[in-house]
Amino acid sequence: MVFLRETGRVTLGTSVAMTVLATFGLVGRFAARTKANPSMKLEDWLIIAGFSTFIVYVGIFLYGVISSGGTLNQSEMSLAQLSHALKYVYIAESLFTATITFVKLSILSLYRTIFPTPAFRRASLFVGVGCLVWFFVCFFVNIFQCRPLVGAWKLELVFSGDATCIVYGDYIVGYEVSNMLLDIIILCLPIWQIRKLQLPTVKKLVIGGVFTLGGL
Description:
Elements: H1 6-36, H2 42-66, H3 79-114, H4 118-143, E1 146-147, H5 155-160, E2 164-165, H6 168-194, H7 201-215
Antiparallel strand pairs: 1-2
Helix pairs in contact: 1-2, 2-3, 3-4, 3-6, 4-6, 6-7
């Protein structure tokens, strides 16, 4: 029987809730798409890819937590358990980065379908390339964060000086800030087009709000 401590139970509950929400969101999206247009588009394949990597990410992360003492609290873990957990966190981080990149690209692809003007397509292509560059930079920084690679989870190598790693806190700050900036840019893209619509300001604001909620 697996024993989960408090942080383990919270992690499990949150993961299950997010998986259920993501599943309902995906099913609802395709149910609506089937009624309007049954053909699959690029944004559909991208969101399926994002959902798939998300499921694998959740599975690996939860397995790492459960098999490492059922907790994320370092004070409740031995060095061996912490190293074991960090090995799965190391793998899960790249999958999470892939997941959110697929989601960003899916939104951009959907925007290109709704706003097929040449200027918007160029702008969205530029942002899409930025998302891919962001993914590859984050992916390789995560993979090669330590030298040798096993230093990312074998902390005894770091403590003994046999492995050197980047300052992980600085990496996370850079990761989150750049991710947030990309999200803001993507959410603002439709505003550019909505401003050109011949509609009252109130209706423009409503439409902009709908796009913002959809992007979130």
